[in-house]
Write a structure and sequence with these properties.
Glycolipid transfer protein, GLTP, 9 helices, endosome, lipid-binding
């Protein structure tokens, strides 16, 4: 069982995120929890490397990561080895608040759902960056990705603050430099390698939650 500490502070590395999400899937297409959490550690570093603009998302992600770490390091940690085993264990043992938040506000299923929703936003944003041109505005790309994903789960005041914060995003070149890969061409190529793995993890999780009617957990 992995023994995680708090989210590390080293620089973001796109290659590291690629490798981590690549290792998320088992041969049977189950998602390894430890790799998923480590992938999110890298994404948090990406957000934090751009200053406080994404802090309203990254802080919540750090909190959710720690909850998942606690589950993995607990006495039933083996039940949380994959997302599939987690869902089965928590549902079989009535450890998920299905209708309203009550006894299990920090269930693995609810916690993971919040990370899953945020992953969709990052997936859309990174894909827009990959296919963008030198003249593309990162603020527009980020806002469009947010409106197509996380916004529907946020209150109006949060949506308003988020879209205002996105206006302060640096340009495309600054984002690419943050990824610590090399030239623009190298960044685009590595995003091209990484995105299918991130998308696959998202799709499998989405289907898993859909099968068990967990996509709207309170």
């Amino acid at each position: 069982m992995a023994d995680f500490d708090s989210v590390p502070v080293e620089k973001f590395s796109l290659k590291e995120v690629l490798i981590t999400f690549q290792s998320c899937l088992t041969d049977s297409q189950e998602i390894v929890t430890d790799s998923y959490v480590n992938g999110w550690r890298g994404l948090v570093r990406f957000m934090n490397s751009l200053g406080s603009i994404f802090s309203f998302i990254s802080k919540d992600a750090v909190n959710k990561i720690q909850i998942m770490v606690t589950h993995r390091n607990g006495e039933n940690g083996d039940k949380y080895e994959t997302l599939q085993s987690m869902v089965k264990y928590e549902l079989d043992n009535n450890l998920v608040d299905l209708q309203r938040r009550a006894e299990h506000p920090e269930s693995g299923c609810r916690t993971l759902l919040r990370l899953h929703r945020a992953l969709r936003w990052l997936e859309l944003f990174l894909e827009k960056l990959r296919t963008s041109t030198e003249d593309s505005k990162t603020s527009v790309m980020c806002t469009d990705a947010y409106n197509d994903s996380l916004a529907q789960h946020h209150a109006w005041i949060i949506r308003k603050a988020a879209t205002m914060a996105f206006c302060a995003l640096p340009g495309r070149a600054a984002f690419f430099q943050t990824m610590n890969v090399g030239s623009t061409e190298q960044v685009v190529a590595m995003l091209g390698e990484a995105m299918p793995f991130i998308s696959k993890v998202y799709e499998i999780t989405e289907e898993l939650y859909k099968q068990h009617n967990l996509l709207e957990l309170p």
